[in-house]
Amino acid sequence: MxxxxxxxFNSYFTSPIGYIVLAAFFAFAGFYFYVTCLIAxxxxxxxxxxxxxxxxxxxxxxxxxxxxxxxxxxxxDVVLFTSPVKLYSVVLGKFVASLSIFSxxxxxxxxxxxxxxxxxxxxxxxxxxxFLGLFLLSATLISIGIFLSSLTENQIIxxxxxxxxxxxxxxxxxxxxxxxxxxxxxxFSDLSFMSRYDNFTLGIINFSDxxxxxxxxxxxxxxxxxxxxxxxxx
Length: 234
Known about the structure:
By secondary structure, this protein is mainly α.
């Protein structure tokens, strides 16, 4: 699996994708930090992290669109079916590589905390909670993006479908308030990524929120493995 992680990680920097994602994330995150903290003269990074939710929804599809789509387009996915490497190792390797790239992106927020520390006291627990929430959110969305990439050989379709799913997820919180049927409303409320992520931005770390993101991540990685297991035996 180490070889797969290294290969996939390096591939992001042999194409423009890695640089585009890093540059875009740093630019938007820096803008939100400047507006919500420096201009507002506030040491609260919660607003910066809240706004980054939207950035994440649009950037992760760019990061994951080629993970398996490119393999299928070039017909190199056949190697996955014939090689002795276990499928879950391939999927996890690609997942870890993508998550590593995005972890570099979100690490900029730790720099923001250091900048604030020069002027006032920083709530370290709150910053770490925000960082953990963003890391879990990223991991979950990456697992969804990888699953969608495994379903098509067209990178554009993979990216658009991932953005569509992300925007639909963004609506869960709104739907939970406007739907009058209580049990359906409760379902959307329980599945709301935004409300669970907002808890982290407020410095609240609930075990149930951590389990939720990890569970959704595991489900989509499992589904990705199943996609290729089915094709292996067809």
